[in-house]
Write a structure and sequence with these properties.
The protein is α+β, with helices and mostly antiparallel strands and 496 residues long. It folds into 2 domains: 443 residues, Amidase signature (AS) enzymes; 40 residues, no CATH class. It contains 16 helices and 15 strands. The strands form 4 sheets. It has an 8-stranded mixed beta sheet with strand order 8-10-9-14-15-13-11-12, with helices on both faces. A 3-stranded mixed beta sheet has the order 1-3-2, sandwiched between helices. Strand 4 and strand 5 form a beta hairpin. Helix 2 runs antiparallel to helix 3, helix 9 crosses helix 13 and helix 9 packs across helix 14. The longest helix is centred in the C-terminal third of the chain and has 21 residues. The two termini are 20 Å apart. 52% of the residues are buried.
């Protein structure tokens, strides 16, 4: 039975559909796993085990009374919910003491779609405060640890999801991404993560876009956040993208009714551009082992027929400034107002309170507020927006609709807790594709010399999600004999 814990969503669903195992047995197995690993990880912060068991018993009845070809595709498959998504009646605190008593009044569209497909949520997972940092820690739930090394970060803001999935506490996850919040945790924890093209998957029910206020977020008021899958296999990414994408009638920026994502594994006449060591201002040089992973994956696709070329990453040097300026153009979404820190004096007060452990706002949240308060429009903003458009034009011209760019997702593998404070701009490699609104996929490739997960980031122009996920599929197939899952399990179990 324990072998089931390692399976991805579709493989586990097939076992259930064939009646090899009941949903109730699967649910009990995964709950036992979570209870075993979570004290060390602190990934699941709001369990709903009793409710999950009730739902699993109902799924047993559906399994026994329904023809196989009519069964819900994810019947009885366990997953978890990032705490930024609403699940009606459950905490929706955003990891902030200022909203610690908040309960969701609605269920987010993507969560409802997963549950309608038969999946069973085991609970809510941890986030950084307001989802605005690349380490997962907050004053409500505490800190989440990486299953490969408990002294290291699981990333953020989908760090709870990534840690739990990587440790086989669930079969799939759903994350969200505004600066790398799917891809960084996926990379640090050795799983797949896909940030879709913007406005493909509805944001309905993701803070602050609650179902009843979604009409306020349209046009120039629509945030750059995107929702996407985090998985153990590339084929699960394709399935979940097809399930989650498409209009819901509430998020008016998502226009297309349905999507059907299918892999395209023919690499002849496809272009692959390699950028193993991009230049980012304020960001350290990429770890040599991660540069090697870019070259290794490029070689895999070259052997499959792709035209592989080098790409000059010096045009990315001001990525952080381009990202932060682009984010500031969203009207009516001042982060300072959402958090309740609208004055410099409040920032100073909270920093002072932090010295005696009486603060109500996390340090990284205060830094985001400070940045917003200090940057308000003007000629400098226009310059950065113009430069950002030039980067977009260059990539559109280079990649077209049949090219991908392979880069490191981060300058280093999972780092020690709290060290991001001293390297706050290291999320630039993922933030680049948020302001461009390009699809981008984190792909695991193995382990470094310290036993930490390695990987690459594969990106393409808007609406070419199939290209990046297909590259992930081809790379996964090529590396299957090299990434030993037994070794992976050993590393995790040694920590836990």
């Amino acid at each position: 039975m324990k072998e089931l814990l390692k399976l991805g969503a579709l493989d586990l669903a097939e076992k259930i559909h064939r009646k090899d195992v009941k949903p109730s047995e699967v649910t009990d197995l995964f709950i036992d796993r979570v209870e075993s690993i979570n004290p060390a990880l602190n990934a699941l912060v709001v369990p709903r085990f009793d409710e999950a068991r009730i739902e699993a018993k109902k799924a047993d009845d559906v399994l026994m009374s329904t023809p196989k070809d009519e069964l819900p595709p994810l019947l009885g498959v366990p997953f978890s919910i990032k705490e930024v998504f609403g699940l009606k009646g459950y905490p929706n605190t955003y990891g902030s003491l200022r909203s610690k008593d908040n309960l969701a009044e609605h269920t987010a569209t993507v969560i409802a779609r997963a549950m309608d497909a038969g999946a069973i949520p085991l609970g809510l997972t941890n986030i950084p405060e307001w989802g605005m940092w690349f380490e997962t820690t907050n004053l409500v739930y505490g800190r989440t640890n990486n299953p490969y090394d408990l002294d290291r970060t699981s990333g953020g803001s989908s760090g709870g999801e990534a840690a739990l999935l990587a440790a086989n506490g669930t079969a799939f996850s759903i994350g969200s991404d505004i600066g790398g919040s799917i891809r960084m945790p996926a990379f640090f924890c050795g799983i797949f993560g896909h940030k879709p093209t913007n406005k493909v998957v509805p944001n309905t029910g993701h803070i602050p876009m609650t179902n009843d206020k979604m009409q306020d977020f349209a046009g120039n008021r629509y945030p750059y956040v995107t929702v996407g899958p985090m998985t153990k296999t590339s084929k699960d990414m394709f399935f979940l993208m097809s399930l989650l994408a498409g209009a819901d009638g509430i998020d008016t920026e998502v226009k297309q009714a349905h999507y059907d994502f299918k892999p395209d594994l023919n690499w002849k006449n496809k272009k692959v551009f390699l950028c193993p060591n991009p230049t980012y201002r304020f960001v350290a040089e990429t770890q040599p082992e991660l540069q090697d992973e870019v070259r290794k994956t490029g070689q895999i696709l070259k052997e499959l027929g792709a035209d592989v070329q080098d790409f000059d990453g010096s045009i990315f040097k001001d990525t952080f400034l381009h990202w932060s300026t682009t984010m500031s153009t969203v009207e009516g979404l001042e982060f300072t107002e959402k958090v309740g820190v609208t004055r410099l004096s409040t920032v100073i007060k909270e920093l002072a309170l932090a010295t005696i452990d009486k603060h109500t706002v996390s340090f990284h949240t205060l830094m985001v507020c400070l940045g917003e308060l200090l940057s308000k429009g003007g000629k400098v903003q226009d310059v950065f927006l113009k430069q950002a458009k030039e980067v977009e034009n260059k990539l559109n011209e280079t990649l077209g609709d049949n090219g991908i760019l392979i880069t490191p997702p981060h300058p280093r593998t999972a780092f020690k807790h709290n060290s991001a404070t001293f390297r706050p701009f290291d999320f630039a490699p993922t933030a680049l594709f948020n302001y461009l609104q390009f699809p981008s996929t984190a792909v695991p490739t193995g382990f470094d010399s310290q036993g930490l997960p390695t990987g690459v980031q594969i990106s393409a122009t808007q609406h070419n999600d199939v290209l990046t996920m297909s590259a992930a599929w081809s790379i996964e197939e090529a590396l299957k004999g090299q990434i030993k899952h037994q070794d992976q399990d050993h590393r995790i179990e040694r920590q836990l």
